[in-house]
Design a protein that fits this description.
alpha+beta; two-stranded antiparallel ribbon; 22% helix; globular; disordered N terminus
């Protein structure tokens, strides 16, 4: 089944989310490497090529938020591919689909009529104050963590079972920014406001989960602080720290308090 013809898209404006991402346990987002140096780190973190500062790629944030919302909406495919993957697999594409509206879809144009990807995830860079203080104290911006594979019989380190992983240490702070495009698809922008509210609730899901690799081993616990919603021109910025957490998730309607904040920040045109 494909979409019926949709009303023309009308762009309403951009909203923006800003937050500090506080690292609560060592964060590892891998850079990959083509060569291994003797005595070197086995698993390095991604760094800016000029400053060598670690950062959080926007793709990592977007991918994890999408993963969490696909599970929340029950949109997990049996083959493990992202929801909206364009393949002859019987998947139905609806223009109102929240996951595909927020994060985009590679579906062919004749299948997807929901318009452009709404979410824009920027790379999160180190907070300058935190970075400068760490360097002033002569400390490194990352830590090396040695991990051991245990021989199950001998009860000691398996031969060749030592590896070193580079992590951003607990206490590090990053500056994050997310853009969100809102369109009127014949509903005055109501569906996109709902999508933005669900996205904000996904930040709470991420706090309860983990960012980056090795989350099951305690890595990547993060917290969003000073979360602000900056809406259309003329609308006051909303502080969401006491709004976005600890709500049950509904696939039918976003949490009312979050949606109220979104609606106030993105009013319909007169």
């Amino acid at each position: 089944m494909t979409n019926s013809v949709q009303p023309p898209l009308k762009f309403l404006g951009h909203a923006r989310l800003e937050a500090d991402i506080l690292v609560l346990s060592g964060l590892h987002i891998g850079a990959g490497k083509d060569t291994i140096e003797i005595g070197g780190i086995d698993n390095g973190v991604i760094k800016h090529p000029h400053t060598l500062d670690p950062y959080i790629p926007g793709s990592s944030l977007k991918g994890k938020l999408r993963f969490l919302l696909e599970w929340a909406f029950g949109h997990v495919r049996a083959d493990g591919k992202p929801w909206g993957f364009d393949e002859k697999d019987g998947q139905t594409f609806y223009a109102s689909d929240a996951v595909q509206r927020i994060f985009g879809t590679p579906a062919k144009k004749d299948k997807w009529q929901g318009g452009p990807t709404r979410l824009i995830c920027r790379d999160a860079v180190l907070d300058k104050t935190w970075r400068d203080e760490i360097l002033r104290r002569g400390l490194p911006l990352t830590e090396d963590k040695t991990e051991v594979v245990i021989d199950r019989i001998a009860g000691k380190a398996l031969e060749g079972g030592l590896r070193q992983t580079e992590r951003v240490p607990a206490g590090a702070k990053f500056k994050a920014e997310f853009g969100f495009r809102l369109y009127d698809t014949g509903d005055g922008g109501e569906r996109d406001r709902q999508c933005l509210a669900w996205l904000i609730q996904a930040f709470d899901m991420l706090e309860q989960d983990a960012l980056g690799g090795s989350g099951s081993r305690g890595y990547g616990r993060v917290r969003f602080e000073s979360l602000k919603l900056i809406g259309f021109a003329g609308a006051e910025a909303s502080t969401l720290d006491n709004v976005f957490r600890s709500h049950p998730f509904s696939k039918v309607d976003p949490q009312a308090e979050i949606l109220t904040a979104v609606t106030a920040a993105t009013p319909s045109p007169a």
